[in-house]
């Protein structure tokens, strides 16, 4: 059975490695946008700069069956994290300007902060 993003967050939180603190926040009862921010950070940190995550992974991890309702917020939070320099947003393998106009699927990767 394939691992779910929620299960991945639980493993990250339990491991005390990169992203553990953020994963615990994402799994907690903080406000939704704070949990999305923490989920994106935890997943990106855990996967490292050689890999990436998708906004839908964070939405699925904390939104359960209603994850699609969180997608606009997840993409917006990803923009905020990228604008702050915490992550990079890529599209078709190239870094995009978080303040720019882009549409379609994106990926999020850490800039190596850990």
TrEMBL record:
| Organism the protein comes from | Mycolicibacterium iranicum (Mycobacterium iranicum)
- Parts of the chain that traverse the membrane: none
| Stated name of the protein | S-adenosylmethionine tRNA ribosyltransferase
In residue numbers, the region (Disordered) covers: 1-29, 85-114
Check the record and name the Pfam families matching this protein: DUF3253
- Tell me which domain of life the UniProt entry assigns to the organism this sequence originates from: Bacteria
């Amino acid at each position: 059975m394939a691992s779910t993003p929620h299960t991945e967050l639980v493993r990250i939180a339990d491991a005390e490695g990169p992203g553990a603190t953020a994963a615990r926040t994402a799994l907690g009862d903080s406000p939704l946008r704070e949990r999305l921010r923490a989920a994106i950070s935890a997943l990106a940190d855990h996967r490292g700069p050689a890999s990436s995550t998708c906004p839908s992974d964070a939405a699925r991890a904390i939104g359960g069956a209603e994850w699609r309702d969180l997608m606009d917020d997840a993409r917006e939070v990803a923009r905020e994290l990228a604008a702050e320099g915490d992550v990079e947003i890529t599209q078709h393998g190239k870094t995009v300007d978080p303040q720019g106009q882009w549409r379609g699927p994106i990926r999020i990767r850490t800039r190596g902060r850990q």
